[in-house]
Amino acid sequence: MPSDSLTPFYYDNTYWVIQVYRRGQRGVSYLGPKRTVVPLEFARKFESQQKALNVLRRLNKSLGEFETKLITQRLGPILPIPVPETILNAISDIPGPYAFVALDWVQGDDLGKWFRHRSKSTYYRYRRKLLEYGIDITEPYKVVV
Q1: Which of 6, 24, 83, 19 lies closest to 45 in space, CA to CA?
Q2: Is pLDDT at 1 greater than 50 in this prediction?
Q3: Peptide bond into 140 cis (omega under 30)
């Protein structure tokens, strides 16, 4: 008898990039970090189109022609263990990489390992963002059966 808690969780990773068109160049290129032209996997990712347009305004137009483009990647399934549907619904509202940290927290993983290799400001930024969704990563997740 299938349960809703066993339904795999898929995550739509959505972000904006700046696509670069150059004369005589085949294939699609994107603006990377340090204003270089790179393939999609190395492209600079923006949270919103407005942030991409702000960077676009400051670009040297001799690199080519530019266009902002919305990229949506479907990732998943990313749940190795069953999680109640109410928690899945809450996590599906969380944007970007914060959802992955929330899933690790729900599954009881040691977040200290993940944040050990990052700055304290990153930890506090993730904590502040997840607190907006009622998730306190400083406390372990408590499962009530």
Answers
A1: 19
A2: no
A3: no
3-15 burial, b at 16+ Cβ within 10 Å, e below that, comes to: eeeeeebebebeb
Q: Is the domain of 128 the same as that of 108? A: yes
* Residue 11: both structure tokens together: 């995550």
In terms of residue numbers, what domain contains 26?
11-75
CB proximity list for 12: less than 8 A, separation 6 or greater = 72, 73, 74, 75
Closest listed residue to residue 42, CA positions, set 31, 55, 28: 31
Q: Please tell me the distance from the alpha carbon of residue 133 to that of residue 122, in angstroms, as a whole number.
A: 17
| Co-location of 66 and 85 in the same domain | no
Give the chain's domain count: 2
pTM, to two decimals: 0.46
The model's pLDDT over 47-95, given as tens digits with 9 standing for 90+, comes to 889 999 999 888 877 777 888 888 887 666 555 556 667 667 777 788 8
Of 23, 63, 68, residue with least CA distance to 49: 68
Of 28, 57, 75, the last residue of a domain is 75
Whether 104 and 142 share a structural domain: yes
